[in-house]
Amino acid sequence: MIIEPAEIFKVLSVETRVKIIELLKANGALGVTEISERLGITPPAVSQHLKILKQAGLVRSERQGYWIPYSINEEAMESCREILNEVCTCGCRGTGKVKEQELIGASLELLKKYEIELQLELELVRERVKKIEAE
User: CA 96 → CA 30, 57, 126, distances in Å?
Assistant: First the structure.
C-alpha cells in the first residue's frame, strides 16, 4: 500500500506522533508501556497513535510473546526525507548543510544557534553509534 506524501505529513502533524518517532529513533524498539511512561500519556492513547503511524507505514511491529515492540520503518522515513528535500527551500539539497550565502550573511546569534543544533545532532549520532556497537 502506497501512502501519499500529504497523508504521511498529516500523520506527522500531531506532536505526540512526532515524539513517538523521536523516541523510537533514539532508543530503538519500544513497547506501548515504555512509550507511555516516557511521554506521560496513557497506554491506550499511545496504542492509538502507534496504530495510525503503522497504517501510514512509518513504524513496524512484530509480536514477541506478550510483548509487541514498535520500531521505525527506516525505508519510510527515508522516503519522507526525500520528499522534504524536493520541496526544501533552504538550499541544502538534502545534505543538511546551510547555504554558504546564508552563513556569510548570518548574524553571530544565528551562527551560535546553528552551532548548538549541530552539537546536539552530533551527540545523538554518537550515542546511537555507541548503542549499535554495544549490541
Answer: 28, 24, 17
> What are 83's three cell numbers?
520528499
Of the CATH numbers 3.90.1150.10, 1.10.10.10, 3.40.50.2300, 3.40.50.1100, which one belongs to the domain with range 1-87? 1.10.10.10
pTM beyond 0.70? no
pLDDT tens column, 3-49: 677 888 889 899 999 999 999 988 999 999 999 999 999 999 999 99
Return the C-alpha cell found at 130: 555507541
16 within 8 A of 49, measured Cβ to Cβ = yes
H-state helical runs in 1-135: 5-11, 15-27, 32-39, 43-55, 74-87, 100-104, 108-134
